[in-house]
Design brief:
This is Maltokinase N-terminal cap domain-containing protein. By secondary structure, this protein is an alpha+beta fold. It has six helices and 17 strands. The chain is globular, with a radius of gyration of 28 Å.
Amino acid sequence: MRRRAVVAVRSAAAARSPASRARTASCRSRRSTIRSPCRAIQPQTAASGSSTRPYLGRPLDLPHRAAHPVLRQRYCLPAKVTKPLSARLGTMRRMALLHRAELRPTKLELLAAWLPGRPWFHGPAGADVVRVAGFRFDDPAGEVGIETMLVRAGDGPVHQVPLTYRGAPLDGADGWLVGTTHHSVLGPRWVYDACGDPVYAAALAAAILAGTGQAEEFFEVDGERRYREPSMTITSSAAGDVELPAAGAPRRVVHGDPTLIATDTVELAVVRRPGPDDGRAGATLAGTWPGQPTPLPLAYATPR
């Protein structure tokens, strides 16, 4: 009985039309592709200027992956990727995770001792330094804290002081050291004038030329992240769609107002005492803060 049934099934399959057999083969092919979409990808040439590269398991990097419907559905990719990664930095969420911690000495105490020795500082001697506003950049490696503070000493003008915070000394940067402090959560921290730190140079260039903007700030409290409203806002005059080269380490820094930072690929100017635009060339990073509703230039960038 079973043998007769098997023969009948085989006879029915053989009697099917060529079109029916083709549809069955197509369905099997689609099922195989869905089970393993990576096997269906062959190295393809992306848009003009891109190289031919095979699938490497990183679905967001290569434009040709977005052209494959299975991968596009699986990874929620757009139908077409037209911009390089550096030109899409402005659309990425950037975050700074902060700690409710105690610093000894505090950042303002460090600045009160350090600022009077700067050639660009204007303020009464011995006056207390107060924080006016500030913002942060994100270090993609997550190793360096990057904070720009606007401070005032006594009745003096507002000064812009970018700082970087590190868990170990930065080689060759002794001349940029503001001081050391003890962080109740992270331990010893080395505080630097950020104009001598390559991580700051890269972050500032990205903020001005690629429009990455400031990092969103969060505090972690009892295992939960809580958003902190920014005390100031920054904007860039650049279109944000340029191919951004790596900024590299500062090759030359000229102290003054502005402080000039030259790397292999970009020239940066950091305004120490923000005021009206003086017509300096280059893309501009401007900021507003309480008491200053009109944007003032904070920094300039010019690709080399």
